[in-house]
Recover the amino acids of this structure.
């Protein structure tokens, strides 16, 4: 488990658009189709990452809690499936079924272009965009990792979501996410 930190997209960056394959529906979805009325969480995850598995319950809870409040959560997997077949679209579909379909979509970034557009580096890599799709938060879910005893709360992302919804300034002191590196395809 190699620990990699996120690159921290500059605040204010407009979310890059995408049109990616949705293994659950067998169709493609764009950011414009899936964005939330009041905000959108875009996160890069994958099936096999122990960091993602560690925070799974919080990711599900946050997605479900904030949907009725106008927040959409979109998950994207960008890993190289030739070398990591457990992250393939059919396995992504299985994982969403096991998780109870908590997200607007779990999309497959086959070209890895979307991960590059978002400057994603690790799983999980989490971004929050306001209703205009400007980045207002990027970084960690909270301080918990599989290797420490810090309780899993989702505090950092929840605070940013609550501030966004209350029209309060979001704390600009944001800490990077840490997780497994995105498994880039060999050139």
């Amino acid at each position: 488990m190699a620990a990699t930190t996120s690159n921290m997209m500059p605040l204010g960056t407009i979310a890059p658009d995408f049109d990616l394959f949705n293994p659950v529906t067998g169709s493609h979805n764009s950011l414009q189709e899936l964005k939330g009325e009041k905000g959108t969480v875009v996160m890069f995850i994958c099936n096999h990452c122990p960091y993602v598995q560690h925070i799974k319950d919080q990711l599900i809870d946050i997605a479900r809690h904030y949907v009725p409040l106008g927040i959409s959560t979109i998950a994207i997997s960008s890993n190289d499936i030739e070398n990591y077949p457990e992250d393939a679209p059919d396995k992504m579909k299985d994982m969403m079924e096991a998780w109870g379909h908590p997200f607007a979509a779990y999309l497959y970034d086959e070209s890895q272009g979307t991960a590059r557009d978002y400057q994603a580096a690790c799983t999980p890599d989490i971004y929050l965009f306001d209703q205009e799709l400007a980045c207002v938060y990027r970084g960690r879910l909270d301080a918990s990792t599989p290797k420490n005893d810090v309780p899993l709360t989702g505090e950092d992302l929840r605070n940013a979501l609550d501030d966004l919804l209350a029209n309060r300034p979001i704390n600009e002191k944001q800490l990077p996410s840490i997780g497994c590196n995105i498994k880039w395809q060999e050139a």
Observations:
- The domain at 3-8+19-181 is CATH 3.40.30.10 (Glutaredoxin).
- The radius of gyration is 15 Å.
